[in-house]
Design goal:
6 helices, mainly alpha
């Protein structure tokens, strides 16, 4: 996705930006694409896909707790040392090292996506999408039976 996932422009944005502006940014993208001669896309459909991609990103990020492509959160800072972490300004995140940067990226990504999940009401969005998919499958099966 242009918006979320690897290389997505909103993947590293704070939850405040993601909650308030994802819809507007997707709509502006759709309008600009069409203005410049690209295909006409349904903004609501693209927004749903962007949000579903962000939901999937959270599940992938959860995998970085134990281990990840760049090393897991617990590999970089063992579980028993987390009780001493006071917040995002703690030295484990802010010292000038690759370890601190890698840990900060993973933790901030997880936290911001969780806050976005709540703020954009992803659960409700997912349930609505799932119900629409189930209805479409039933309708296709009924149509197939009639043939």
């Amino acid at each position: 996705s242009v918006f979320y996932g690897p290389g997505g422009c909103l993947s590293m944005a704070g939850h405040e930006v993601r909650i308030a502006h994802t819809g507007g940014l997707v709509q502006r993208f759709v309008e600009t694409l069409e203005e410049l001669g690209g295909p006409s896309l349904d903004g609501q459909s693209l927004l749903l896909r962007a949000c579903l991609m962000d939901m999937m990103t959270l599940f992938m990020a959860m995998g970085t707790i134990n281990r990840g492509g760049f090393g897991g959160i617990y590999e970089r800072l063992p579980r028993e040392k987390w009780k001493d972490v006071t917040g995002i300004q703690d030295d484990v995140f802010t010292n000038d090292s690759t370890e601190a940067m890698m840990l900060r990226c993973s933790v901030v990504s997880l936290v911001e996506t969780l806050l976005t999940w709540r703020g954009r009401r992803y659960y409700d969005m997912f349930i609505t999408w799932r119900e629409r998919c189930q209805e479409a499958v039933k309708a296709a099966e009924e149509q197939k039976k009639r043939k």
